[in-house]
Amino acid sequence: MKRQIIIIIAVVLVLLPSTLFSQNKIKWYSFEEAFELNKKNPKKIFIDVYTDWCGWCKRMDATTFSNPYIVEYMNKHYYSVKLNAERVDTVFVDGLMFINPNPGQRKSSHQLAVSLLQGKMSYPSYVFMNEKNEWLTVVPGYMKPPAFEPVIRYFGDGDYLNKNWEEYNKTFKADIVE
Fold first, then answer.
1. What is the mean pLDDT of each run of 10 residues along the chain (178 residues)?
2. DSSP secondary structure, 55-106, as one string
3. Can you give the pTM of this predicted structure?
4. CA distance linking residue 21 with residue 67, whole number of Å
5. Burial status of residue 138 (CB atoms within 10 A of its CB: 0-12, 13-18, 19 or more)
6. Is it true that domain 27-171 has CATH number 1.10.300.10?
7. Of 59, 86, 83, 84, nearest to 148 (Cα)?
8. Distance (Å, rounded) from C-alpha 85 to C-alpha 119?
9. pLDDT of residue 21
10. How far apart, in whole angstroms, are the C-alpha atoms of residue 74 and residue 66?
């Protein structure tokens, strides 16, 4: 009996942290899922445009996108999308078809990524879209959580509608402290 209790406690201790940490991740959607969800329940869309070979993209995943504040904020205010800029499948969005014209070639960009980044292929890059699925802007480059927070809040809180970035950033009060 004593041994069974010890085994049960050990199992709980092993499973409990993974349960807690699994809830502390950004909920990622495909582009198509986010686009459709946004039609039913409008929310801003955040798109992380990355590639498999991009070291800074992996660092963004390991640091910034795993920060508890960032995770909570992103899940609350955005449909977050992971978009591999070199994906090889076909994407259909509102009757438009996007393909990778050279799917077998190295560093061949998908048309959806090219369109979203307006041809400025830099990784990682982050595309912000409003609740009407309209493109707002692209923000390129790796950012630590304290640098990323004002960017996601600028769009997530809707301040971009009535303040320019410089004005907003001067008065921004951070929740994340390094």
1. 52 44 81 93 98 97 97 98 96 92 91 97 98 96 98 98 96 90
2. HHHHHHHHTGGG-HHHHHHHHHHEEEEEEETT--S-EEETTEEE--SSTTST
3. 0.85
4. 11
5. middle
6. no
7. 59
8. 11
9. 44
10. 11
Q: Which tokens sit at 124? A: 């990682």
Neighbours of 23 (CB within 10 A): 8
Q: In this predicted structure, what is the pLDDT of residue 19?
A: 41
Alpha helices in the chain (DSSP H): 2-22, 31-40, 55-62, 68-77, 111-116, 145-156, 165-171
Cα gap 12→136, rounded to integer Å:
46
Residue type, 161: L
Measured in Å, how far apart are the chain's first and last C-alpha atoms?
A: 48
